[in-house]
Amino acid sequence: MRFVIQVVSEAAVRVDNEVKGEIGKGFMTLIGIAPEDTEEIADKMVKKMLGLRIFADENGKTNLALKDVGGSLLLISQFTLYADCRHGNRPSFIKAAGPEPANKLYEYIIARCKEHGYPVEKGVFGADMKVSLVNEGPFTIVLDSDELV
C-alpha cells in the first residue's frame, strides 16, 4: 500500500466540474493499493499517517500532528502509484490491485479515519478526477507499507 501525503491549506476534487470533496487545512492523500494489501496493512498505514507530526508549531518546527491543528483529510484513490516504468515508455499497472478489492480497502481506510474522529472527504473511485490543492511548504511524504515496521 502506498500513501502520498501532502500538507495542504486547501484541496478539492472535482468530477465533471462538480466538487465531490473539499477541505481546508489538512492532508490530501493519494492512496495506491496492491493485490496483497489487507485491512491489517491499511490499519498500520492509517495509524502512521494520522500520527505524523509534520505541521509547524509556534517555533516553526514540524512538531504537530493532524489532530493538533484540527485538520481534515481528502483521500483519493490512485492506482497509478503502482506504475511500473522499468520497461519502455508506457507504464504497466499490473502491480495495482483490481478495482473491486482496491475500492473495498479504499472505503475501509475512509471508515477507519472517520472512526478516529477526523473530518474526511473523498474522491470518486475510478472516476476521471480533477484535483486542486495548495501544498504548504511544500511538504509531501510517501508512505509505503513495505517500509513500515
Number of distinct helices: 2
CATH superfamily: D-tyrosyl-tRNA(Tyr) deacylase
How does the helix and strand content classify structurally? Answer: alpha/beta
N- and C-termini, Cα separation: 13 Å
Number of strands: 8
Strand content: 35-45%
Low-confidence stretches: none
Task: Name the helicity range.
Answer: 10-25%
Q: Could you give a short account of the major beta sheet?
A: 6 strands, mixed
CATH architectural category:
3-Layer(bba) Sandwich
Mean pLDDT figure = 96
Please trace the helix and strand order, writing H or E for each element: EEEHEEEHEE
What number of domains?
1
Which CATH class? Alpha Beta
What is the CATH topology assignment?
D-tyrosyl-trna(Tyr) Deacylase, Chain: A
Summarize this entry quickly.
It is built from two helices and eight strands; from the N terminus they run βββαβββαββ. The chain has 149 residues and is of the alpha/beta class. It has one domain: D-tyrosyl-tRNA(Tyr) deacylase (D-tyrosyl-trna(Tyr) Deacylase, Chain: A).
Describe the overall structure.
- The chain has 149 residues and is α/β, with parallel strands linked by helices.
- It has a single domain, classed as D-tyrosyl-trna(Tyr) Deacylase, Chain: A, CATH 3.50.80.10.
- Helix content is 20%, strand content 40%.
- It is built from two helices and eight strands.
- It has helices spanning 39-51, 99-115, and strands at 2-15, 18-23, 26-32, 53-56, 62-65, 72-77, 120-122, 130-144.
- Strands 1, 2, 3, 6, 7 and 8 form a six-stranded mixed sheet that branches. A two-stranded antiparallel ribbon has the order 4-5.
- Strand 6 (72-77), helix 2 and strand 7 (120-122) form a beta-alpha-beta unit.
- Helix 1 crosses helix 2 (99-115).
- The radius of gyration is 15 Å and the shape is globular.
- The model has no long low-confidence stretch (mean pLDDT 96).
